[in-house]
Design brief:
By secondary structure, this protein is an alpha+beta fold. Among the domains are: 62 residues, no CATH class; 39 residues; 49 residues, no CATH class; 99 residues, no CATH class. 36% of the residues lie in helices and 11% in strands. The strands form 5 sheets. A 4-stranded antiparallel β-sheet has the order 8-11-12-13. A 3-stranded antiparallel β-sheet has the order 7-9-10, with no helix packed on it. Strand 11 and strand 12 form a beta hairpin. The longest helix is centred in the middle third of the chain and has 38 residues. The chain starts with a strand and ends in a 10-residue tail after the last strand. The relative contact order is 0.04.
């Protein structure tokens, strides 16, 4: 290395005659450590320049296109190879992508692209059973979905437009006012008074309160159904000729059951009153109660018999064969057609009534008739004679 000398005259930059020669080994690198080129602070300039030159050679070699290792590319799937240089490899790839090769293969057009497999998005798999579709099928599938969405958007838009029109019409009518109605009766302990006008919601609340109170007092529907179905079958009046028209032998609602209960209560009341009267008559007009026999029903009641219900009714009728032949019947209780005791033709209770004979109260018409049995129960088939038809049974 030649160092410059300040005392020397240097008119020519290439003329080193005035310079004093200094060895490059005597010049020291004062810069920082350069690890990328393996240069350290304090190395001689000779070592620094040598290291830089070595790195320059390496860079030039690696940057050379001919230094590229083309074996890193798998050429077995490419037509027209193999390539031996990088330039040949690049051309071979271009030919296989879009151009023609020497073998006539390697064309790549739109139809090839459309066959590429595409994974269907998970959010769309509910509408198709396929997880993978070709690009062509996937595009068609998405196009159909888009068309459907457009139709739905159009329908929703029409509905929105219609709703906006209805809302506008409602707004034009002004603020909504709850309808009112006149109360027909007092409700909910005075919360609603008959004849006064109240909003519908107020009346509804009062009705609900009264209904809950009513149901708590009367029971559920099942309780009423059980009570209605508890009526005994084939009830017969004890003293009345027949049940009133309000009586229903097969009630299905509580109203019918209540009407039947009143009919039975009325019959029991009259029967009780009749028993009291009969006891008084027997005590006053008949033999002593110590004898143990009483006129059945009362001292003025007479009977006629027959082999059938109709025959007994006919014999007991005012226009019967011999109405004057009616006779008294005796038993130990004095109760009409008492099923618990036997009946006789005299107070001494010697001659028992005939088995399976029907006995009707005289005179006939709309009167009571029953069939006697010498075994318990002693009276059965209680019914009435038909007042509108001689000899008939109701």
């Amino acid at each position: 290395m030649i160092a410059s000398n300040s005392s020397a005259s240097n008119n020519n930059t290439n003329d080193m005659s005035g310079c004093e020669a200094i060895s490059s080994n005597c010049v020291v690198w004062q810069g920082p450590d350069l690890t990328c080129v393996d240069v350290c602070h304090g190395d001689t300039i000779s070592n620094v320049i040598a290291a830089l030159c070595e790195q320059l050679v390496v860079c030039c070699e690696e940057a050379s296109i001919n230094a590229f290792d083309i074996d890193v590319i798998n050429q077995t799937t490419l037509d027209g190879g193999p390539a031996t240089t990088l330039e040949e490899l690049i051309q071979l790839i271009i030919n296989n992508i879009g151009g023609s090769t020497s073998t006539g293969h390697g064309d790549f057009d739109c139809s090839d692209v459309m066959k590429c497999p595409i994974t269907v998005a998970e959010c769309l798999r509910e509408q198709t059973t396929q997880e993978v579709m070709s690009l062509h099928d996937y595009i068609n599938f998405l196009a159909v979905l888009i068309c459907d969405i457009q139709d739905q958007i159009a329908l929703l838009q029409a509905q929105i437009t219609g709703n906006e029109q209805r809302i506008t019409a409602l707004e034009a009518q002004g603020e909504y006012t709850t309808p009112t109605r006149v109360a027909a009766g007092n409700l909910a302990g005075g919360a609603v008074t008959a004849g006064q006008t109240y909003p519908i919601d107020t009346l509804l609340d009062a009705l609900d309160t009264d209904y809950v109170t009513f149901r708590s007092a009367t029971g559920e529907v099942g309780t009423w159904n059980t009570a209605v179905s508890a009526q005994p079958a084939n009830l017969q009046p004890l003293i009345k000729a027949s049940w009133p028209a309000s009586y229903d032998a097969n009630p299905t609602v509580a109203g019918q059951s209540l009407a039947n209960a009143w009919a039975v209560a009325d019959d029991l009341r009259e029967y009780s009153q009749s028993l009291e009267a009969r006891i008084a008559v027997i005590e006053n007009n008949c033999c002593s109660s110590s004898s143990g026999s009483y006129r059945m029903l009362d001292a003025s009641t007479l009977y006629m018999n027959g082999a059938t219900c109709s025959a007994a009714c006919t014999a007991a009728a005012p226009e019967g064969d011999d109405p004057a032949a009616c006779y008294a019947i005796w038993n130990s209780s004095g109760i009409l057609f008492d099923t618990n005791v036997k009946a006789y033709l005299e107070s001494t209770m010697t001659t028992e009534l005939t088995n399976d004979q029907w006995y009707a109260i005289c005179p006939g018409g709309n009167t009571i008739v029953a069939k006697y049995s010498t075994t318990y129960p002693h009276w059965t088939s209680n019914t009435t004679c038909d007042a509108g038809e001689e000899g008939g049974c109701a």
